Structure prediction request, 557 residues.
Amino acid sequence: MKKISTFCIAIFSFSVSITGCQCNNLEYDIVIYGGTSSGIAAAIQASRSGKSVVLIEPTNRIGGLTTGGLGQTDIGNKVAIGGIAREFYHNISEYYKDPASWKWQKPEEYKDGGQSRTEDNEATMWTFEPSPALKVFKEMLAKEKVKLVFNQRLNRESGVVKEGAEIVSIAMESGETYSGKMFIDATYEGDLMAAAGVSYTVGREANSQYGETLDGIEWTTTAKTILGSDSRNAVNHNFVDGVDPYVKKGDPESGLLPCISPNGSGEQGSADSGIQAYCYRMCLTDAQENRIPFFKPDGYDELNYELLLRNFEAGETAIPWINSAMPNRKTDTNNRLGFSTDFIGQNYAYPEASYAEREKIAEAHRSYQQGLMWTLANNPRIPEQVRNEVSRWGTCKDEFEREDGWQQQLYVREARRMISSYVMTQKNCEGIEVVADPIGMAAYGMDSHNVKRYVTPEGIVKNEGNVEAHVKAPFPISYRSIVPKSDECVNLVVPVCLSATHIAFGSIRMEPVFMVLGQSAALAAAEAIDEKKNVQDIDYLRLKKTLLENKQVLNLQ
Prediction:
């Protein structure tokens, strides 16, 4: 068999600047690592709680996915979102009330859609461009006493200093050191959590481990046959039947096309180390004065998109994207169908990878998507109506720092997940188990993007891992799921890479929920300081009272 194409492990490099430092040891009540939306909410709340706080962002841009292209807010029942998160979406609404905010479109011309539609006379707005989200976050932080630090990456090898189970300080690669009474890991990757020696997992649990039905390997194509009335939809985001997986059609000896696993589907419901696919949530525009046309990236090879072309030739007719409308003739563009923006199976190494390796993985994802968009807009094997529509769009001149209009924030849908004394599972999502110590609510369906691309016994290509299962109602998230086991770390809170199974995390992992959990993490950290207790030992009833006073939603009864 011929050698598999190296496209799927192609690597590129770029540098990340680090600000100069005098290698001081800086002391704060609360040290937050990760300027994601969750980290920002935590920092704002820490300031409002009267604590000295530093927010350390490893890159030069705060906000994570909320400012990185994910303007189509995924949440489900919006009533579940309160506190600083709702304040943010209210401020977005206020921003768009200003006529000066509408440069490329009149406000009356804009219509939002999807699960995040803003209703008439609603005080919040749930769809937005990346740059206004960044502006709103900066304005919210400017009103608080938050020390904001950019371009400082944690020394993951030796930067976490502990005395017993207590973190004393964390050091950056630059040598800058931050001491604190409490620490919050608000990164998508869980780097501080891991470096602090806290237990975690990567990948999918077997369904049998926690008594679930949707967690492990998922390749069924007729979901109702397996689960009766269960609402998961394994047939979505897959190839039409008949797509040949081999370089030379019908010839296994010619080798597999790029990014197809040679190991088959795996056993239904079993565990593996795969994680759901990443992509960039593209912010596109059809305003010609603001549009950067799609271009062919360096190293482009049509073979890398042969599966896309064959899928159309086998009968696919739709454009492989979800092009959700944002204000000013822009979009939040997401994955759809069998071959789309998700770079399936090419992120497994990311959670544990070095910074340099992560940069290569991120750049490989960007190059893949750039090539995808150019192919859809230009390749004559793509249906004409698809080419005509895709070629109307391009990246935006006025959004991101890169000249090509692409963002730096990769959509890290999941990475590490902590294992604490309480693990959120499918049973929580379905209301079978209800926690007694809620700190916020999740409301989105149990959602996993595809994990693997494989060859079926019939000799055709399919994707594996897609799950879309509704939750009946918003469900509470346990305080115990955001604090480590007490023998591992007593002054760390983890609101993003929290303790949850793969499928439960698939519901919880939404930006407004991360904001909710970030605020709750800061309130818990402040209480632990005030009570001079470990985060595991604080008075939950006191915390609950404080959460409610700060407008968090803990139940809908």
Remarks:
- Confidence is low (pLDDT under 50) at residues 1-6, 9-21, 221-234.
- The chain has 13 helices and 22 strands.
- Residues 355-378 form the longest helix (24 residues).
- The first strand starts at residue 25 and ends at 33.
